[in-house]
Write a structure and sequence with these properties.
single chain, about 290 residues, alpha+beta, 5-stranded antiparallel sheet, two-stranded antiparallel ribbon, 9 helices, about 15% strand
Length: about 290
């Protein structure tokens, strides 16, 4: 692909960010970017809170969301490193990564994901999220794709901060971002998901709101008298060791069907999912 053609195609993607509302343009742009950048999946994750967690806000394919969720559960991975160190992280082949780099991530099944390329959404020292590109085959990004991905990341940063790539305001009014909107006619043909067939990953929920995870983190923080970051670690530890989705663990904590012990991360975990919900003694009578 010639440089001029590549430039025209990525500029077409950036023009999709010129929507009337904060969340209108990004879902379409992310789906289109997967084809233009010649990757199998694209996810845009934004910083969630002071714990350093990332939430997948827009993605081109459910598998891109699933890989983001897997990193969230493990608490480690290339996207989190990109956010933490505010640098580009390129993994040409996830299967050859040293085990001690991301031990929790490399110890679980990541499906057919092989190449992972992460670009921080940043302006100077300000970090707001990460653009993650996924491939089902190993190998580096080409020079043109690297340049286009960097351009897309910079445009997304401006977009998320309330400006279009041209510098004009993109926000018509307040409101949360849409999680996974897709153009009415579906993803474009090409590399935006045909290579992903992830048993167990494709059942990811359509909605991407982690309100229950944040609520459960706050509950644990208060109950165990620990910081929010430590409370989130405990949730992740139980999800990881039990093989349960993090959302399910958080829901069980909120419903008081799961108690997490205070003596260690895993040895004092008591799962009481089979017990009926008990009223909270602090709750007022009906």
């Amino acid at each position: 692909m010639g440089l001029a053609v590549s430039h025209d195609r990525i500029m077409g993607v950036l023009r999709l960010l010129e929507g009337d509302g904060w969340s209108d343009g990004a879902p379409h742009a992310v789906v289109a970017a997967a084809e233009v950048l010649e990757v199998d999946g694209v996810a845009v994750c934004l910083s969630a809170d002071e714990t350093g967690a990332l939430e997948a806000m827009w993605f081109s394919h459910p598998a891109a969301r699933a890989f983001s969720d897997l990193q969230f559960t493990c608490g480690q991975g290339p996207s989190l490193d990109s956010m933490r160190y505010c640098s580009v992280v390129r993994v040409d082949d996830l299967a050859t990564v040293r085990e001690d780099r991301w031990p929790a991530l490399t110890a679980v099944d990541t499906g057919p994901v092989r190449g992972v390329f992460c670009f921080p959404l940043r302006i100077g020292a300000l970090r707001i999220g990460v653009l993650t590109l996924l491939r089902t085959h190993p190998g580096p990004l080409t020079g043109v794709s690297n340049e286009d991905a960097d351009l897309f990341a910079r445009a997304l940063t401006r977009y998320c901060l309330g400006q279009s790539p041209s510098g004009r305001s993109t926000r018509a009014g307040p409101g949360p971002p849409a999680a996974d909107a897709v153009p009415p006619d579906g993803p474009p043909a090409g590399g935006s998901g045909a290579g992903f067939a992830l048993p167990g990953f494709l059942d990811a929920a359509d909605s991407l709101e982690r309100a229950e995870i944040h609520q459960a983190t706050g509950m644990l923080s208060a109950q165990l008298r620990i910081g929010l970051a430590d409370a989130l670690v405990r949730l992740r530890a139980h999800a990881y060791t039990s093989g349960r989705p993090l959302d399910d663990v958080a829901h069980a904590v909120i419903a008081r069907r799961l108690r997490l012990g205070s003596d260690s991360l895993d040895s004092r975990l008591t799962d009481i999912d089979d017990e009926p919900d008990a009223p909270d003694p602090e709750d007022p009578p009906a």
